[in-house]
Amino acid sequence: MKAFALAAACVATGALLAGCSSAGKPSNNDDSAFVYLLDRKGTWVENKVDTLPTLPTDANLLPFEVSGNTPLHFAIDPKSLSVGDDGVVRYTVVVTSPGGARNVSYQGIRCDTYEWRQYAALNADHDDWDRTVANDFSRIENGALNAYQAALYQDYMCANKIPLGSAKQIVHNIRYKRTQTSLIH
């Protein structure tokens, strides 16, 4: 009886091994092309930005801290902030120098890739948007003195590669200076 069980087990194992190969022949597939599930690039598509927000007014601007080493002042227009279903947080940022010069632009931060892009900036006449300055997504710079995109990403807009909530929640956090580190208990 033991001999019969052993023979049956050997036959079953042989049949199983034969079924695992392609007609019993070694594979010529290149295993170096293997990609782990979590490393696969998705088919991400950015939402179209057809309409731009109205230009910001000083009364609505919400300041945020970037670095104690910069003389520049940074602020967000809360009325322009939106969170797209593509994972991009879009906003108007106003950067003001100590002399009063201002740089106003409409930008987006892509949470899943730690990237930012510019959609438009204030035109030379200071009365409308200029789309000719738009650029593609590029990596956010951490070490730059005025790396405000990094501050926005890390402090208010993104965590774990996703937006930190609705536009209303992000604006609320900026208004009350509730950064990610201040929320840790």
Automatic annotation (TrEMBL):
<feature type="domain" description="CNP1-like uncharacterised">
    <location>
        <begin position="41"/>
        <end position="175"/>
    </location>
</feature>
<feature type="signal peptide">
    <location>
        <begin position="1"/>
        <end position="23"/>
    </location>
</feature>
<dbReference type="Pfam" id="PF08750">
    <property type="entry name" value="CNP1"/>
</dbReference>
<protein>
    <submittedName>
        <fullName>CNP1-like family protein</fullName>
    </submittedName>
</protein>
<dbReference type="InterPro" id="IPR014861">
    <property type="entry name" value="CNP1-like_dom"/>
</dbReference>
<keyword id="KW-0732">Signal</keyword>
